[in-house]
Every structure is written in C-alpha cells, then in structure tokens.
C-alpha cells in the first residue's frame, strides 16, 4: 500500500482536505475522491486533452499532474463554469453550434477554450486552433468546435 499524505486542494472555489496516496494524480483525486467526473480520463499519457483543467487559470492535463503539486493553487474543472444552474456562454455555444459529437472530449475542449477566452476575448480562428491543439476529438473535423468558441467570443467566424 503506498504511503498517503494529507493534501489541501482548492477546487472550484472550495477547499478540500483529503488523504491521497503519494503519487496520486489530480485526475484520480478529482474523479474518485471529489466525485467531479466531468474531467475525463482519455489516454493516460497527456496526449488527448480530455482531462484538461485550469490551474491558476492555465490549462493543465490532470492525467499527468500530481495532486500534491497543485496545493495552494486554484483548480477549476468543467463543473465550475455553470452559474446558478445555467450553462456558461461557452458551454451554451458548444451546445448551440453543435461543437460536441459524442461529448467525451468536450469538457477538455471547453476548459482549454475558457483559458483562451480569458486571455484573448476576441481570438482569430488560428488562435483558437492553436489553443485547442492539445485536445483531440475523434468524432469531428473541429469546424463546429472553432465556431462554438468564436460564437462564445461574440466575434463570429474569422478567417
């Protein structure tokens, strides 16, 4: 049995103190200990982006991030975006513009796009594609995903 340590995580604005095995991945702590299952387990190797969360506002792959390494930092998951039971503008745009197919990659895509829009509220299509480059979708050609991000930005599609 691996040794465990007490860690304190700030996730979605709430502080959680919990025992986690040494070497526990942020993905496992989020999904198993905190029951935040919106963050998806895709490749287990940091290659698909399905597990993207924000750490201090920056996209981070939860499947290759040690939970203990984010102590004292703000972690945001897809569950943090809706406000008062309503989808965020970005989540709504993904729904309205058909930016989801099976939906498995969607939480990671949305979190990566959220980070982009916070930094650059009016990105070009190229900037959207660059920001989402680490997030793989196995169902689509990304056109609707880019359109959804642009719709949320209020910029429409740019060349």
Strand content: 15-25%
* Known CATH architecture of the largest domain: Roll
- Which structural class do the helices and strands define? alpha+beta
CATH superfamily of the largest domain: Beta-grasp domain
Total domains: 2
What coarse outline follows from CA principal-axis ratios? globular
CATH top level of the largest domain is: Alpha Beta
Record field, number of beta strands: 5
| CATH topology (fold) name of the largest domain | Ubiquitin-like (UB roll)
Strand order of the largest sheet: 2-1-5-3-4
Sketch the topology as an H/E string, one letter per element.
EEHEEEHHHH
> Which stretches are low in confidence, meaning pLDDT under 50 for 5 or more residues running?
155-159
Task: Itemize the secondary structure elements and their pairings.
Elements: E1 4-11, E2 14-21, H1 26-33, E3 52-55, E4 58-61, E5 74-76, H2 89-96, H3 106-119, H4 125-131, H5 143-153
Parallel strand pairs: 1-5
Antiparallel strand pairs: 1-2, 3-4, 3-5
């Amino acid at each position: 049995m691996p040794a465990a340590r007490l860690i304190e995580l700030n996730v979605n604005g709430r502080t959680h103190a919990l025992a986690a095995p040494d070497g526990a991945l942020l993905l496992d702590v989020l999904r198993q200990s905190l029951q935040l299952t919106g963050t998806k387990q895709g490749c287990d190797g940091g290659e698909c982006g399905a597990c993207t969360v924000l750490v201090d506002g920056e996209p981070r792959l939860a499947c290759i991030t040690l939970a203990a390494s984010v102590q004292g930092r703000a972690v945001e998951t897809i569950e943090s975006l809706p406000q008062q039971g309503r989808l965020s503008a970005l989540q709504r745009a993904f729904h309205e513009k058909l930016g989801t197919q099976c939906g498995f990659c969607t939480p990671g895509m949305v979190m990566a796009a959220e980070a982009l829009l916070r930094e650059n509220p009016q990105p070009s299509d190229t900037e959207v594609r660059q920001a989402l480059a680490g997030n793989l979708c196995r169902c689509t050609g990304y056109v609707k995903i880019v359109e959804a991000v642009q719709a949320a930005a209020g910029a429409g599609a740019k060349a």
